[in-house]
Design goal:
Number of helices: 26
Structural class: alpha/beta
Strand content: 15-25%
Mean pLDDT: 81
Radius of gyration: 69 Å
Number of strands: 93
Length: 1435
């Protein structure tokens, strides 16, 4: 069934329904036409055309029965069952909701299935079994428990057999699923022989019939519904144990003649479309699925479409339409007889006809014929009853078949036969609905009351409270009500469950009164509290008696326990007794009230008597009450508390009153005795007090004198009280205490109750000699009793021991270092601080000299310093590998004089806080800390003590710093010594020397101030009194861990003297170097300062000056020695100020020195670049402000964030001035360089133009010579010039000068040139003119130019200037030019050539050509210069 009514589990859809639905309209029309024909023949009329319902649905096939069991009886508790087909598709699922057992049908199409049962919460309670039934006998197909499964549960042709069927259904071994395609009979016959899967892809006629003998595992199918036509003959005959399956085919127009005409006798005339077996056949098995038989005719025998006769064989027809088939005798569609098996499922028989059994004929078959889920409509069998089915000696298993419009005969073999079926024996005959459900059916008149025709796929569930135990119910009346005590909870129940003991059967799940129904119960409810059922199957619960009760769902009543009761029957619970009442024993129906003197709480079994000290004054008391103070109850069960008499007292809950102790009295009902006080005493009865005299106090029943340190006051009558702090009483019996400061002296004090003044008051302390002294200003005496050892040292102050009277202000770390306090050993140091005056740092901390603090090494500057170093290294490497043209150009244009000013200023600025002993406020402190890199002190820069604790020692730092500096310098010169042998020329050696000397000087410049400071600070020691002043400490100011009286310090001091001697040689070395070359730095001259400066800048490239240019290059001529004094100036700022003990004076001196520096730079202008002087002046102003700021802070002003911000702003404001001046000069230099580049570009352009012009002119001269008949003139000229160059060229005459002693000075040389000038020109001019040349006198070289060449070209050798007197000769042809050269080259004559320079053979890059000759003229020893030109090649 597609769906169970009223919430039953859904069943799988019927795949056969789709086929039937497609065929329904066609079948309906054909059936109607056929029925009209039959009615005309039988003389009947069609009563109601609306009776033709849709025939496209099919009935369920064979079903298993699933039996569900729960041993505890409360359902499966979450366990479920699942019914799954071979493709893994879930068909059904369900569970046992409640109770101990239930059943469910397991149905499906032709397939093999798997049942899976999950575990649930209690798998051991779950069990199940699957059964199948036939002829009333059941057999078990599978079983299991929670968490198990069963497979291979098959339905259909492979379904498990019923008890009366063969144990194994037909099964075939098939070939691969890909079939052999056929389109005609011949191909089909050949394919059948292969025992294969055959796909019929086209319709065709089968004639003659095809015999399938003994072939097994054969599948003939069609996916296109191919039609196989018999053409008036049978289509297939399957015999001799053949196993064949037909699927998706249409068989039509099969024909067999009358048996009298048929060859082969009777059998040959049966089964017009298909014969299965035959006479004597055994074991032939045929299966027809999803196919159609139409128009098949067996003339006068059996089985119009199919005929089965095979012992042990079978014919299975499933989802197949059999229409318009005819048999002359029995079974218009199918005839089956004689020992074979016939199974027909979900098929439709429409308009078939035969004389007997219009659709189906059954006769003497071996097993029960299964006819399930079929439709028989409008079939015709006019001779005998059974227009649809003729049944002879054969049993039928029958469920869910539909009959409509079938017509049969009036006579037959059996009584009760009718139009639909000639009944012989039918098993079932009902609706086909499973147990718990019923169909919508009507009784078949011709079924003898046993057969019904039912609506397809319509099954309704029995309502709750009603059940059907068997399948096949045909109406709701078949659902029987559950008997008394039993119930059916769900719709579709197949059996009633018994309510267990403690519950009852009723008709509503809302029923909770314990009274159920006698039949038709649909729920099992537990008995409510107060009612029970002792046995299972109860319809009502019995009420418990008064004094008893029960919980819900109980089987026995229980008596109420002691302390509780139930007053009426069916009480849902026992009530507890209220407070003040009790109930003894069990089964009580009421509680008893407590009497006076007793009490009981709630749920009490009895009343308790009040104990001594307690009472209850009324009946029904919930609790006894404690007697109040001043009253008592001596016996148990007291109803009242008695009052205490005078002289006695009692506390709460007292059993007796106590007598007052000596010295105390009381009145009646007293809760306590009161004291008489220090000035009175008690009488013997303890009822009255009497007063004492002044100076005495009561002691029990008498008065005694006050002890020392106490007094009563002048009036007496009170207790002796301790003297107040600051007063004392030295004797006993004192009435008043005396004041310490008035009697003993100022500053003395006493504690409370003192008999003497032995401590000092606040702001005073007790000296060891016993005197009270005023508290020192460096400490506080916050309380009375302070001593020298316990006074509180103020923060920022230090003393060495508790006996020290000397206090010292902490110069390092302030309150963070010296936290002060009251300590008996020494003033404490803060976290991270240690040593005398807390000036040293603990392990894992480093000293930040600028901040004056100890900082954690985890936050040290090692990381940032290494990062800076890494950046510098990477930048250096990048600068060598990457062409940063703009950056390089900008650097090249920087004035490094300004860089030096900024660097030295940063060095001095960094020293200001330490030199003046000033801790600058933030944010100025951070700014000065950023200048650490300029100090070039690696120990401070990287917090060296964090790397190695030994590096914290100052003597180690000084030695390592100096030695490291010396080592670096040594490495510099060692590298030079290694390079020197590899230089190929003296020029290369000088160049390498210049580089290493420059590096050496830069190192000394950078590190000299820092090394001097470190070395000089090694001689300054501070002295402190220790303990009681009898000892004196002498500690190195730079490192308080180093004792200046120790042997270690003495060794360091001696070593330091040697280090200072080495370091202080640096300025002296500067002076020695500069003094040696002073004549080149500022030689006497009458030229302007700018001209002289340009001359010096040119001389700086000489080997005499270039190595030392670092020392003077930025200074004016008059200040060539300034670097010596600049070194001392920096040392004075950095080291000198630091050595002044008075740091305030140090700041004042710094102000004075910076003022002097500013005045010097402003007035003297020592730098040759004006902007550098301005920068130096500004930097001095910055130093002035920094020292002034330090002085102001030392005087107590501005030591706050505002002051720090002002200092920072002032310093930062100067930085843009520095940068602006530097960038301005760099920009100007860059502009000048750019102009020079443009000018050079123009020169190169003009030079190119000149080359074209000169080369053209030379070509013209060569052509002129050729035209003049002198083709070899150029070649001859070149040969002569080669001879000239070989004899007088620069290689032959490398150096030329005037005769030795010709002149003793440049001035004398210039005078001689004037004297010789006229005579020289007079001698040369006629010679040139005779050679057809134009003679031109040149001007004398100026003395300035002569001096310049002397210095720069000839290294001061003025006699080598041989072109002071000059002239030129211009020729118009190569021939004249050649003749002149040859003439002057020849020996003899008044002109003598000394040296030549040929620029004709190898012209200049501009194409310019000439010949330079140095010669002397007879009568004058001065060497002159004569230049030969061609007219058109003149520069």
């Amino acid at each position: 069934q597609n769906a169970q009514a009223n919430g039953g589990p859904a069943l799988p859809p019927r795949r056969g329904a789709r086929l039937a639905a497609r065929r329904a309209p066609m079948l309906r029309a054909a059936a109607l036409a056929h029925l009209l024909l039959l009615e005309c023949a039988a003389g009947t009329a069609l009563a109601n055309a609306s009776a033709f319902a849709s025939v496209g649905r099919r009935l369920e096939q064979l079903c298993y029965t699933l039996n569900l069991v729960d041993t505890y009886g409360d359902g499966w508790n979450g366990a479920t069952w699942t019914w799954t087909d071979s493709e893994g598709e879930v068909q059904e699922t369900g569970t046992l909701q409640t109770g101990s057992s239930a059943t469910a049908p397991l149905c499906g199409d032709d397939d093999c299935y798997t049942l899976t049962v999950s575990q649930g919460s209690y798998p051991t309670e779950v069990s199940w079994s699957i059964t199948e039934a036939a002829n009333g006998d059941e057999s078990t197909a599978a079983s299991g428990v929670g968490g198990s499964s069963a497979t291979d549960l098959c339905i259909g042709t492979v379904a498990p057999s019923l008890s009366t069927r063969p144990t194994t259904a037909p099964s075939y071994t098939r070939a691969p699923t890909v079939g052999i395609p056929v389109t005609n009979r011949a191909q089909l016959v050949n394919a059948i022989r292969t025992n294969a899967v055959i796909d019929v892809e086209a319709s065709f006629t089968v004639s003659p019939q095809i015999d399938i003998d003994g072939i097994t595992g054969l599948l003939i199918r069609s996916s296109v519904g191919a039609v196989l036509s018999g053409s008036n003959g049978r289509i297939f005959a399957c015999r001799n144990g053949a196993e064949v399956e037909f699927e998706g085919l249409v068989f039509e127009n099969g024909y067999t003649p009358s048996w009298s005409d048929a060859t082969g006798g009777f059998i040959a005339a049966c089964g017009a479309c298909m014969l299965v077996g035959g006479e004597g056949d055994y074991g032939t098995q045929v299966k027809v699925v999803d196919s159609e038989f139409r128009g098949c005719t067996s003339t006068n025998t059996h089985g119009g479409a199919l005929y089965l006769e095979s012992t042990g064989g079978s014919l299975t027809v499933r989802r197949t339409l059999l229409k318009d088939n005819y048999a002359g005798s029995f079974g218009g569609a199918i005839s089956a007889q004689y020992k074979g098996d016939l199974h027909v499922f979900d098929s439709e028989f429409l308009s078939n006809s035969a004389q007997n059994g219009g659709a189906l004929h059954l006769n003497e078959l071996a097993n029960i014929v299964i006819i399930e889920g079929n439709e028989f409509r409008y079939n015709y069998g006019p001779v005998s009853p059974g227009g649809a089915i003729r049944q002879d000696d054969t049993a039928i298993r029958w469920f869910g078949n539909v009959f409509e419009g079938n017509v049969g005969g009036t006579t037959g073999f059996l009584a009760g036969a009718g139009d639909n079926i000639n009944m012989f024996y039918v098993e079932g005959g009902g609706s086909g609905c499973p147990a718990g459900q019923y169909g919508e059916c009507s009784v078949m008149v011709d079924g003898g009351g046993q057969l019904f025709t039912c609506e397809r796929d319509v099954c309704e569930s029995c309502p709750p409270g009603r059940v059907t135990a068997d399948m096949g119910a045909v109406s709701e009346s078949d659902c029987l009500p559950c008997p008394k005590g039993l119930f059916a909870l769900d719709h579709g129940a197949s059996h009633c469950d018994s309510c267990p003991a403690g519950s009852y059967a009723t008709d509503s799940a809302e029923d909770d009164d314990g009274i159920g129904v006698t039949s038709g119960a649909s729920a099992c409810q537990i008995c409510p509290a107060g009612r029970i059922s002792t046995e299972s199957g109860s319809a009502s619960c019995t009420a418990c008696s008064a004094g008893e009760t029960s919980l819900s769902g109980e089987t026995q009543c229980v008596a109420c326990p002691s302390g509780s009761f139930s007053a009426i029957p069916a009480s849902p619970a026992c009530e507890v007794c209220d407070a003040g009442k009790a109930a003894a024993g069990t089964g009580n129906v009421a509680c008893v009230r407590c009497s006076a003197g007793t009490a009981a709480g709630s749920n009490a079994a009895h009343c308790d008597a009040c104990g001594p000290g307690r009472a209850s004054t009324t009946t029904g008391s919930a609790a006894c009450v404690d007697c109040e103070a001043g009253r008592y109850a001596e016996v148990e069960a007291s109803a009242v508390c008695e009052a205490c008499i005078p002289g006695t007292f009692s506390s709460e809950a007292a059993a007796l009153c106590d007598e007052c102790p000596i010295g105390r009295v009381s009145s009646a009902r007293a809760p306590a005795c009161r004291s008489c006080g220090g000035g009175s005493f008690a009488n013997a009865e303890r009822t009255l007090c009497a007063p004492c005299a002044p100076g005495t106090e009561a002691s029990g029943d008498k008065c005694l004198p006050c002890s020392p340190g106490t007094a009563t006051g002048k009036n007496g009558g009170g207790a002796c009280l301790p003297c107040a702090p600051g007063t004392y009483a030295a004797e006993s019996g004192t009435m008043e205490c005396d004041r310490c400061d008035l009697v003993v002296g100022k500053g003395y004090w006493s504690i409370a109750g003192a008999s003497s003044c032995d401590v000092c008051k606040e702001d005073f302390y007790m000296h060891p000699v016993g005197d009270c002294l005023a508290c020192p200003m460096e400490a506080t005496c916050p309380m009375e009793g302070t001593t020298l050892a316990t006074l509180h040292v103020k923060p920022s102050w230090f003393r060495f021991t508790a006996r020290s009277e000397d206090f010292y202000e902490c110069p390092f770390g302030g309150e963070d270092a010296c936290v002060g306090g009251n300590h008996t050993a020494s003033a404490p140091c803060g976290e991270a601080y240690d040593g005398p005056l807390c000036r040293t740092c603990d392990a894992h901390f480093y000293k930040d000299g600028l901040a004056g603090t100890c900082e954690d090494c985890a936050e040290s500057r090692i990381g940032p310093a290494l990062v800076v170093l890494a950046v510098v290294v990477v930048a250096a490497i990048a600068s060598m590998t990457i062409r940063w043209e703009k950056l390089k150009a900008w650097v090249a244009n920087l004035d490094f004089g300004q860089v030096r000013v900024m660097f030295s200023t940063c060095q001095v600025l960094r020293s200001v806080p330490s030199a003046t002993g000033t801790t600058l406020p933030e944010p100025a402190r951070s700014f000065f800390a950023a200048l650490d890199v300029a100090a070039l002190n690696p120990f401070e820069l990287v917090s060296s003590e964090c790397l190695n604790s030994n590096l914290a020692a100052y003597d180690t730092r000084v030695v390592l710093s100096t030695c490291s500096f010396v080592a670096v310098c040594a490495v510099n010169w060692i590298v030079f010594a290694v390079r020197r042998p590899f230089e190929s020329s003296e020029e290369g050696v000088l160049r390498a020397f210049s580089q290493h000397m420059a590096c050496f000087l830069e190192l000394t410049y950078a590190f000299y101030p820092t090394l001097s400071l470190m070395q000089f600070k090694g001689f300054r020691c501070d002295e402190y009194k220790y303990d009681d002043g009898s000892e004196v400490y002498s500690l190195l100011e730079a490192d308080y861990t180093l004792d200046c009286n120790s042997a270690r310090y003495r060794r360091f001091r001696n070593t330091n003297l040697g280090l200072i001697a080495v370091t202080q040689l640096i300025p002296l070395m500067y002076f020695a170097i500069l003094y040696r070359v002073r004549h080149l730095l500022h030689p006497p001259s009458n030229r302007s300062q700018q001209a002289q400066l340009r001359d010096r800048q040119k001389r700086e490239q000489s080997h005499e000056l270039k190595p030392y240019s670092f020392l003077f290059t930025h200074y004016n001529l008059d200040w060539w020695h300034l670097e010596v004094w600049e070194a001392y100036r920096r040392v004075a700022f950095i080291s000198g100020l630091a050595l002044i003990p008075d740091k305030t004076l140090s700041a004042a001196v710094g102000i004075l020195m910076s003022s002097m520096s500013s005045s010097f730079y402003d007035r003297q202008h020592p730098f040759h670049v004006a902007s550098t002087n301005a920068l130096a002046t500004t930097a001095s102003h910055q130093l002035f402000f920094s020292y002034l700021s330090a002085l102001v802070i030392r005087l107590g002003v501005g030591d706050n964030a505002t002051g720090g911000t002002i200092i920072l702003a002032a310093n930062v404001a100067i930085v843009p001035v520095w940068i602006g001046i530097g960038f301005k000069d760099a920009k100007k230099k860059a502009k000048d360089a750019d102009e020079r580049r443009k000018l050079y570009g123009k020169l190169m352009k003009y030079e190119g133009q000149d080359k074209i012009k000169y080369d053209a002119a030379w070509a013209g001269y060569t052509k002129h010579a050729i035209d003049a008949g002198r083709p070899l003139a150029e070649e001859q000229l070149m040969a002569t010039l080669a001879e000239l160059e070989a004899e007088f060229g620069e290689d032959a005459v490398p150096e030329l000068e005037h005769p030795p002693g010709f002149a003793k000075s440049v001035d004398e040389l210039m005078d001689l040139a004037v004297d010789c000038n006229d005579s020289v020109h007079t001698a040369i001019k006629p010679v040139i003119e005779r050679l057809n040349g134009l003679y031109k006198e040149g001007p004398l070289k100026t003395i300035e130019r002569t001096l310049e060449k002397t210095e720069f070209d000839y290294k001061g050798k003025f006699l080598r200037v041989v072109d002071i007197v000059r002239a030129s000769a211009v020729f118009h042809s190569i021939m004249d030019f050649h003749r002149a050269v040859k003439t002057l080259k020849a020996p003899g004559g008044k002109l003598k050539v000394l040296r030549s320079k040929d620029r004709v053979t190898v012209p200049l890059s501009s194409g310019y050509r000439d010949v330079l000759l140095n010669l002397v003229v007879e009568g004058c020893d001065m060497v002159i210069e004569l230049q030969f030109h061609l007219k058109d090649v003149v520069a």
